[in-house]
Amino acid sequence: MKKLSAFLVLFLVVLSCDSDDDNNVGLIGDWQLVEVLADPGDGSGTFMPVTSSNIMTFNTDGTVTSNGVMCHISINATMPSAGIYSSDRMFFKTDACGLPDYEYTFEINGDLLTFSVPCIEPCGARYRKL
Description:
The longest helix has 14 residues, at 2-15. The chain has 130 residues and is of the alpha+beta class. The chain contains 2 helices and 9 strands. The chain has a single domain, classed as Lipocalin. Strand 8 (112-116) and strand 9 (123-129) form a beta hairpin.
């Protein structure tokens, strides 16, 4: 009975761990652009695969850098940009596009990080964890 009680206590401790810590650990590192969404204006747009050398890097100090402009859906990695992020609120900010207070919210699903960019139609970018 003591072994069962100890197991249940251990199980409850594991369940009570903060999921934000796990999310932050998964966020840190390099992410490569693999898909973009550019809706034609009729709602029929879907994420399409791209070949890109655009890499975003989430650093442990709360900064994010990219070898491309992270607030666009461009596949080109010709204009570096940087900003800050919050893993708790799941957003990043950059002044690279003239919107320094705009929060680009993102979500992580497995090894994919997806966020939208301001457009008239739906636009977005999807990065894969390297």
